[in-house]
């Protein structure tokens, strides 16, 4: 058997070993016998070296004209498109989600990179008339400096691209710490950046555990922006660490997303949406549909349809094109899912489908669990309130539309929600009154596109947004510029009353 490939950190344009001399294995969650590669266990010295390289590179990168930066991004997107199938297969082996989804993950990175390449010829500011003669007023964007990215394992190429590409087009430099479970996808992304002309030091990567290198990266005095995607508990710590030195922080955290099914809904479509929203990516996405609330008149029918469909979902290795759901990412996440299943039972929820770990044959080599549905869930149950981050759907009923809105908002999170109805008035009312950052009509709670802002309210985020031009506000600061060509001292209104 051949030895697994050893992957190194990427610092100042070089692939280098960690100064710790330690490494760790990255294994396939669908088949733990398969080692995808050996990665560096980085330490504080590696973080310091990466940040120093980024800080030095910033001096020249910020002066590269934005259209020229965009041309590099365009080449990166084109190369990713050429390698889409290769990188998607790597991602399925690394993360476990099915190949149809990892192709979408890679495509999201391609789309985001093309999108931000175009922003190199925009980065629009404002021009506005002055209140005085012979004076010109405008605003421009300016970069901030070194950006630190801590990215999750569930979208191991898409989410890094959401952070990297707007930061780069604005003229910032980067140090990224990919999730411990999914570093290969970021290695693939950085290889393309290197090949297509990103200068040394502009993009840097250190791999390893968050406990070892996450905190020193966030707290480094040269880091000006921290962008984090992960749990609310960790995001709160990131926010507190950044507040001490007034660092900019962009946080994308948990969700407990709801799908509302009204009595006039197309039930086949609603069930399709619930299945995809709840069990796509094995439920391991912040926008996953984890709560389904149905009008009392259709509750029984929807539950029956859902349970039957869920039982027939094919679970297995995501490289099999016929598989519909892959494994949990690791043993810890599998244990979390199984524990929530037991909690739901103890709280009195009725198990309608699934509820067990899958065993036997190839299942014994991976972290597989059945798609699980709980019925008769009430708002005091933990399964209603807490994010599971796995293929577990909590189903409840409501009597009136007003009650549905109240139930939808009954969560500390505010990322995504949806409604299935044929009544345009109810659709628009729900769109207005459900307090989330993303809302869908006659679609599941998943499916965001690159050209609209992505993010949530309440404990899901801290007000910033990823994707679209909204991401540019995270990675740039406004400068207002006044040019007086009158040849005399003119006092503006604030000084001349």
Question: Can you describe this structure?
Answer:
By secondary structure, the protein is an alpha/beta fold. Strand 12, helix 9 and strand 13 form a beta-alpha-beta unit. Helix 1 packs across helix 7 and helix 9 crosses helix 10. The chain is globular and about 80 Å long. The mean pLDDT is 97.
Question: Helical residue percent?
Answer: 25-40%
Enumerate the spans where pLDDT stays under 50 for 5 or more consecutive residues: none
Residue-averaged pLDDT: 97
Q: Give the strand content.
A: 15-25%
Shape: globular
What would the keywords be for this entry?
about 500 residues; alpha/beta; Aldehyde Dehydrogenase, Chain A, domain 1; Aldehyde Dehydrogenase, Chain A, domain 2; five-stranded parallel β-sheet; 14 helices; about 35% helix
């Amino acid at each position: 058997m051949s030895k697994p490939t050893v992957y190194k950190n990427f610092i100042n344009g070089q692939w280098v070993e960690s100064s710790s001399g330690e490494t760790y294995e990255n294994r396939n969650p669908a088949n733990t016998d398969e080692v995808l590669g050996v990665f560096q266990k980085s330490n504080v010295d590696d973080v310091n070296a990466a940040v120093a390289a980024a800080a030095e590179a910033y001096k020249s990168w910020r002066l590269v004209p934005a259209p020229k930066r965009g041309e590099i991004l365009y080449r990166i997107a084109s190369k990713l498109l050429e390698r889409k199938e290769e990188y998607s297969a790597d991602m399925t082996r690394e993360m476990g989600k099915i190949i149809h989804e990892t192709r979408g993950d890679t495509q999201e990175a391609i789309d985001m990179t093309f999108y931000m390449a175009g922003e190199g010829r925009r980065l629009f500011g404002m021009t506005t008339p002055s209140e005085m003669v012979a004076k010109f007023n405008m605003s421009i964007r300016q970069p901030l400096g070194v950006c630190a990215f801590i990215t999750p394992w569930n979208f191991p190429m898409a989410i890094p691209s959401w952070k990297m590409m707007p930061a780069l087009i604005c003229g910032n430099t980067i140090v990224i710490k990919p999730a411990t479970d999914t570093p290969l996808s970021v290695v693939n992304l950085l290889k393309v950046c290197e090949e297509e002309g990103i200068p040394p030091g502009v993009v840097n990567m250190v791999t390893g555990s968050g406990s070892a290198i996450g905190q020193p990266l966030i707290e480094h005095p040269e880091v000006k922006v921290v962008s984090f995607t992960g749990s609310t508990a960790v995001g709160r710590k990131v926010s507190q660490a950044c507040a001490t030195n007034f660092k900019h922080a962009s946080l994308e955290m948990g969700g407990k997303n709801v799908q509302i099914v009204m009595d006039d809904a197309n039930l086949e479509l609603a069930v399709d949406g619930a299945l995809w929203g709840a069990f796509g990516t094995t439920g391991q996405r912040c926008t996953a549909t984890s709560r389904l609330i149905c009008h009392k008149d259709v509750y029984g029918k929807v539950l029956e349809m859902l349970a039957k469909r869920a039982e027939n979902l094919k679970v297995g290795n995501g490289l099999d094109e016929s598989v519909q759901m892959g494994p949990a990412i690791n043993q810890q996440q599998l244990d979390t899912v199984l524990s929530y299943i037991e909690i739901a039972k103890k709280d009195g929820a009725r198990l309608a489908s699934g509820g067990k770990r899958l065993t036997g044959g190839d299942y014994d080599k991976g972290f597989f669990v059945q798609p699980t549905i709980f019925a008769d869930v009430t708002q005091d149950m933990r399964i209603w309130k807490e994010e599971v981050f796995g293929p577990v759907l909590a189903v409840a009923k409501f009597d009136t539309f007003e009650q549905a809105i109240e139930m939808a908002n009954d969560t500390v999170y505010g990322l995504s929600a949806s409604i299935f109805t044929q009544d345009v008035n109810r659709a628009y009312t729900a769109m207005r009154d459900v307090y989330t950052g993303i809302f869908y009509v006659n679609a599941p709670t998943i499916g965001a596109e690159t050209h609209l802002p992505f993010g949530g309210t309440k404990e899901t985020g801290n007000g910033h947004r990823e994707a679209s031009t909204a991401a540019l506000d995270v990675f740039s600061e406004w400068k207002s510029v006044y040019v007086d060509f009158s040849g005399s001292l003119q006092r503006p209104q604030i000084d001349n009353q």
